[in-house]
Structures are given as C-alpha cells and as structure tokens.
Amino acid sequence: MNKHSVNNLVIMLVILGLSGTSFSQDIKVTAGFTQNYAIQNQEIMLTVTVEGSSAQNASRPAMPDFGEWFSFGGSRGTGTNYSSINGRVTYSMSYNYSLIPLKAGKATIPEIEVRVGNKIYKTDPFTIEVRDAGAAPPPNARQPNRTNPRSRSGGNEPIDLFLRAEPEKQTVYKNEGVTVYYRVYAGLNVELSDYTPLNLPNFPGFWTEEYNLPGNRTLRPVKYDGRDYRAAVLKKIELYPTSEGDLALDPIQMEFRARNRSTRRTRDIRSFLDDPFFDRNRAVRVASNNLNINVRPLPETGKPANYDGLVGKYDISADVDVKRVKANESVTLKIDVSGTGNIKLIGEPDIRISGVYEQYDPTVNEVINRRGGNITGTKSFEYVIIPRTEGELKIEPIVLSFFDPAEEKYRSVRTQPINISVEKGDRTYSETPLVRRGEEVRLVGTDIRFIKESVKTWITTGHSSLMNTSFVIMIILPLILIGVMFLYSRHVEKLNIDIGYKRSRQANTIAVKRMKKAKKYLDEEDAGNFYPEIAKGLQDYIADKLNISAAGILTDELERKLINKNIDPDLISEYITCLQKCDFHRFSSAGSSKDSMSGLYEESKDAIIAMEERLKKANG
Fold it and tell me: Which class is domain 312-431?
C-alpha cells in the first residue's frame, strides 16, 4: 500500500469516527414517579423519559410484569420537548402510565425497555414506599422522586383521598345477606367536585342488590385510624353468597375530580390562581381495598324436609277473591311472601287442594324496596283455579321454611286453610274440558253425544267468481302476514344475537321511562333524586346507542365516538353540557330551584330527541 493510499484510509477512518460521534444515539432512558411515595389503592403516575438526539424515534416503552404490587391502568398521555444549543437539537419524550398499588410495603419497579432504532435501552430498577390508605404522609412527602421535571401529569402534590369497601360483617351463612358500603375518604383540605365509576362491579359467587342512595353525597366529618377525614357513601350493595368458603370481591375503581385547598395567605399571583374560580382540579383514580367474605354452610340440624335454601325473615299469607262460586267459574288464589332477604330466591309455593279443579300456572310479581337499612320486599303468586264439580274445594295450609341467621335456627310459617263452597254450575260437566289435580278423574254426566235426527235444508245462493274482492283478499292477506312474520322473526333473532342492536333498539324506550321518573321528582321538587335520574337517563341512552358501558363512560371517549358517527359538534356539546350540569349537583350542597330543574329537564329531553334523530340518519 503506497503512502497516498494510507493517507486516504486515515482520512476515511477519521471521517467515520467523527460521523459516529455526531450521529451516535446518545440516548438516556429514566423512569420515576410524580411523587416519592404511593398510597395503597390510589393511582400514581409513572413517567418514562427518553432523552437524546434520536429520542423522537423511540418506540413506546414495553411495560414489565408488576406482579402482585401494582394494577396497570394503561397510558395517560405523552409529552414532547426539544432544545437547540449551538445547532445541536436534543429531544425529550415522556410517556405517562397509570399504576394502582395493591398492597403496602416497599414495591420494586422492574427495568423498563425502550427500543430506539435497532438498539434496546433499559431503565434501572428502583423502589417506592407504598403506604396504607389513611396513613400519615412521610416528612418528605412533597419531594419528587426521580421525576422528569418537564412532566406535570397529575401534579406532584399528593391528594389525601382513598376508597374503602366496608362490610357490616365478614362471616355469614350461605344465602345470608351482607351489606357492603363503598365509602370515599377525603382529607380536610381536599375538595371534590365529581366522580365517575371506571369499572362494573364483579361479584362472582353472589346475588347482588344495590341500594338506592340519595342524589347528593354529603361529605361528613369522621375519624379513620385516628385521623380526621370527611367521608361519604358512594355505593351500598347487599350481597347474597351462593357458595361456601372464602369469596373474594373485586375492587371497584373510580375517578375523582379533586384538588388540594390552598393554605397560602400571600396575595401573589399563585394564590390568586388557586381561587376556586380557576379550575385546578385534576383526575385522581382510586380503587377500593381487597375484601374477602367468609361463607359458612347452613346447619343440618333441624333442617325441615321442605327447605329449599331461603335465608332471612319472612311471612306468608294467602287469600281468594271469592269463597262461594258455581262449578266451572274461576277463583283467584293470591299468595304473598314478604320479608327481609333475597326475595328473588323465593320459589313457587307447594299448593295442596282437595277436590276436582283445574289450575293454571301462576302470575308472579316482585316488589323490592332498596331504601333504608335492609333489602325488603314481597313476592306474589296469583293462581286461577276453576272448580269442576259442586261440593267443596279445600286449600290446605301453605308452609314456607327458612333459616333465620339472627337466631341461627330454621323456622316455618304457614297460611290458614281456605274453604271454597262450590254450587252446581249452569253447564254440564261433559261440555267443559276436565283437568283433575290430586285424585283420579271421575266422569260426571254423559260423554256421548246423540245423533241429530233433523237435517238442515241446503239452498243455492247463486254462482261464485274466483276474482271477486273477498277471494283476492283471502289469497293476498296470508302472503302479507307471512312476510310480516318473517321480518319480525329476523328482528327477534337479531335481538337475541346482536347485543348492540338490542341495546340500540331499546335505548329510546328506556330513556323515556327515565325521563318520566325524573318528571315525577321534578313535580315533587325532589332535587336529590331528580339530578341522578336525569344523568342516568342521558348516560344509559347514549351508552346503549353506542354499545358502551354506562358505568365507565368518559367525556373524551363519548365525544370521539359521536364525532365518528358524524354527529353535529354543537349537539355533542349540548348533550355533554347536560351531563355536566347533572354531575355538578352530586357533591354540591347548594340548593336548586324548580326553575333550574325544569330548564335542565327540557334541555335533556330535547338533547335526547335530537340525538335520536341524528343517530338514525347516521345509521342509515
């Protein structure tokens, strides 16, 4: 190799070296939280930051398995920053994620991988202290923990807020009701403006009944673990376990709009901006604690032979509409079972009647009272009974057995016997179909009809035409009916298969019922029930139309889905405004005039009607 070639090679290596220095991926990847400690079951924001000249080419971080420590809540947005110094541009990409700590202790965040180009970068593992809900914050609570200084997602100041699932008792018998309260606790300096459930409660192994609570949730002073809080019950649910053993209740997640009330007294611009007029609330996601219910088996001692699993306290009554009838005339027997417990579990009573009669399947009605301290109600069974012969029908006492958990023993209640006097009917027994209950059939009267000796005279009515109007209608009408039946069967089939179609078809009917109920509360000037009913009508209608969950409906998601349906933005804004007006009154202690209630009622009704018309056009 000559000297000239060597010089060229050296120059080339220098150029390549400089290029490598200039365009190397000087990437730095870090991870941290927006605060230096976490609260059990309260959301905390994890921020992954990628910095460097090629950071804009980074892929989304690959989230690790957080094991038993955290529930991953998904992405909460990204941020981009860049700076230019002496012509050198440096990018900073921030990725924010929601985590909910599941237990207290020292939690470790594993390394998180980020790919930039063909190279993978990893963060260093680190730990964070997770404190029990309601525990006092550490002395350095407001010092950020390795947080990207540019990231302001969720704010750096913790909000003293948590949600508790509190059962009245944790050991019950199978099918015994247990009341669970879902109560929010807020620190004395915390202001709440709204809340939204994020997940539908899942209670495997339980029958559930949810109590009807007042519309306004007033925060009242309480003590929790020796500290002062304000608390309110957001949900109250009665659970009836259907199996034995330790049954777990899935946590409920909710998102609150909350802020810390400023304690500054200076008159600088910061204290001015802390005025409630400026909405500084932020979204805070919290989850209820894990909860297990221990379910004991029902005792075998003293169990009645006719016992079918009913638990609680009940009474039973029976009566008939008439006690003296003629044969072949109907009698209505009504049986009412009332009490405290799982009303839906009450089965059809065992009825024993002596006599010749025909009995039809009962009409069943349930009335459940979800207000007050216990779930109570009545289940009614109405039977139509037709005596077929003269004499007497005797309805034996009807026995209902149940287990009383308060006394821890089985009890039985019974009705009084009922006697029905049956007189001879106007028609002979052979002219009426015979159904016999309890005995073999005994024929009464004659079962053979005589041959008629007289024959009617046949007369000619004239000629007929195959093309007359009546004949054509008789031919065409069955074809029309077949077509209608075919279309209806397709409609029913689609209702059974396509849940979204079924919800959409029923949305308007359900909304009308909600609005009628809201009108009743409006007339009674019952603001506590009026606003939740209007909100429920608006939420359920739009959720059914879009086939999404009403419980976790979010404004941004709703707006996006309606825009995709080509709905007018002004109408979307009007609809969302109605929802926001309802939400405003959930925590508001201010009164509400009938005029403002009437105005919201008309606005909501018009919004639903307009939305129905637009969605029909959008769906063709």
Answer: mainly beta
Distance CA 563, CA 569 (A): 7
Whether the domain at 312-431 and the domain at 496-618 fall into the same CATH topology: no
User: Which stretches does DSSP call E strand in 388-508?
Assistant: 391-395, 399-404, 409-414, 418-423
Please say whether the structural domain 25-131 has been given the CATH code 2.60.40.10: yes
Q: Are 191 and 276 in contact (CB under 8 A)?
A: yes
| pLDDT tens digits for range 337-370 | 999 999 988 999 999 999 888 888 899 999 988 8
Query: Of 119-128, 408-417, 470-479, 501-510, where does mean pLDDT reach its minimum?
Result: 501-510
**CA torsion angle 216 217 219 224 (round to 10):** 170
d(CA 472, CA 460): 23
- Using a 10 angstrom Cβ sphere, with 0-12 exposed, 13-18 middle and 19 or more buried, the burial of residue 93 is buried
How, if at all, do strands 399-404 and 245-249 pair?
A: unpaired
- Nearest CA to 161 among 305, 87, 258, 280? 258
User: Is beta strand 418-423 parallel, antiparallel or unpaired with respect to 324-326?
Assistant: parallel
Provide CATH code, domain 161-296.
Answer: 2.60.40
Mean pLDDT for the stretch of residues 220-237? 89
Which DSSP string do the residues of 247-298 spell out, in sequence order?
A: EEEPPPEEEEEEEEPP-----SHHHHHTSTTS---EEEEEEPPPEEEEEEPP
Domain 496-618: state its class: mainly alpha
Q: Give the number of residues written for the chain.
A: 620
Identify whether the C-beta of residue 70 lies closer than 8 Å to the C-beta of residue 99: yes
pTM of the model: 0.56
Domain ranges in the chain?
Answer: 25-131, 161-296, 312-431, 496-618
